[in-house]
Amino acid sequence: MSQSQTENHDETRDPAVSVATTARLHFGFFDPSGRTARPFGSFGLSLDRPWTRLTLQRARDILVTGPEAQRAARYLGKIAEAYSIDHAYRLDVTEAIPSHAGLGSGTQLALAVGAAFGALEGLDLSAPAIADILGRGARSGIGIATFEAGGAVLDSGPREGALPRLVARVPFPEHWRALLIFDPQSKGLDGADEVAAFETAPAYSEDARAALEERVLERALPALQNENFDVFCEEVGYLQARMGDYFAPSQGGIFTSPRVGAVLEALRADGVTGLGQSSWGPTGFAFADSQAEAERLLAIATEVADAHDGGSDLELVIAKGRNEGAEITSPHLTSARNLGSTDV
Fold this sequence. Notes:
Helix content is about 40%, strand content about 25%. The chain is of the alpha+beta class. Strands 1, 2, 3, 4, 5, 6, 11 and 12 form an eight-stranded mixed β-sheet that branches. Strands 8-9-7-10 form a four-stranded antiparallel β-sheet.
């Protein structure tokens, strides 16, 4: 990207594209080792919070501001280089999903930057195309699928060098809720530590992989379609238990954050079955079948967090599932739109 444009350049006249996208929960892989004939493959859910929001426009000089600015600048530079477009841009990140929290912040930021760039430059860029250019989605396609359409999604895992493809998508019931438990003092594995965790993890059997996938396809997804809360929670809890046991040596226990773990164990003791840790954590979650039940779980979680040593600064939030994709808004180019919400 060039450092400057003409001296008379007026940024206020340039079209601006805004993109807003939300976090996702990653429930787990069917083959967490990535070594079977059908590696990885995963199940997850789009949430209605927290958000990443950004705005992109051409400018006289390169300027990237806001949370995750350095990361966003790298993504912008890389995708502009891929298309040999030599312009300066102003990129304002006004809100960002917490990083290294197990919520897919990096993928959502990359896709948001790429989508804004594509809309601004008149390029027809799909979310998988952006992910491929920016190096996202190598193991899991959950973040790509939720960016495109939201909902509860199942991906195939990578196949023959290609990114994971969407296998199934089911809307999440409107009245169900997810209690999110954030630990700002902890972070999940990333970078070299994440790579090492996968490289040193034990092999996973084909039978075990097939059994997990079958349970999601034949029980969890139909339970969502039929709004059978108990069965859905049973299956999420089962998948989470398998992932917790498998990755415990890499992340120091079933849960990355002992403080989040204490809250989740208290909820489990209260009878909650649909709970766990998203991806590498530390963010934990617990499902409720109504707003009232979510508020009851919130009260239990708050009491446990306040009583636990150093746990009072845990952040507890009630969220919904989100059944729409990212929002792209440009008053100068197109009207606001969602990428989609089509079931597969």
